[in-house]
Structure formats: structure tokens, C-alpha cells
Amino acid sequence: SRCLVKYPADSTASYCTGEIVRLSSPAVAFGSDVNFARRLRCESFKIMNFGGRTYRERLEALPKPALGESVATKAGRPFHAASLIHLPLPFRWDASTLESAYRSALDMADANGYGR
Hints:
InterPro entries: Macro_dom-like. The chain is an alpha/beta fold.
């Protein structure tokens, strides 16, 4: 994995790109849209394929989050992490949309006790 940021530096939550399925800590999948995973060859696609049918069905049952809004899922096996926070991002965005999107993921991490 290529971790971009740890939140905070000594935290157990990682925010990464790359091989997110190998992480052992709860993680934010930036750009992961749980409802478009089959259509887009992105982090979501890798996550769904790795998780198998049960995880895919769990994701498909979630309400569709708006762009920049996070949704958390319990990961469990075969993932090493206990849960994943999915953050769908638009292909083009302005600075305020991107900031809002990242803040949404960080707030959800805090709310779930991942950040501190």
C-alpha cells in the first residue's frame, strides 16, 4: 500500500491508495463508490472482487451515498481490516467539494473511533 496520510500520525486508521485490501487497520477507500463498483474499474472494483459475493451483496444493499459523502461497511474476512469507509469522489471537483469530501470521511472515522 501507499499510505497518503495517517490520521493522526500514531493512529490505527489509515487513508490509502493502492492495495487497500491488505491493510490491517480500518481504512478509508477514497474514490470508492459502493454503488458503481461494477461499472468503474477503481478501488471499489478491487474491494468488491476481493470481498467476494457476501461482501458485494452487503455493499449493494447500502443506500447510495452522494458524491463526497462517506458510508462505512464492516469488512471482516477475507479483509484484514475490521471495516472500510467508502468515499465516492467526482471525476472533476473544485477545492471546496474535495475538502468537504475528505472532511466527511475524517468525521466518519472520528465517529466510529478510528481516528483517536
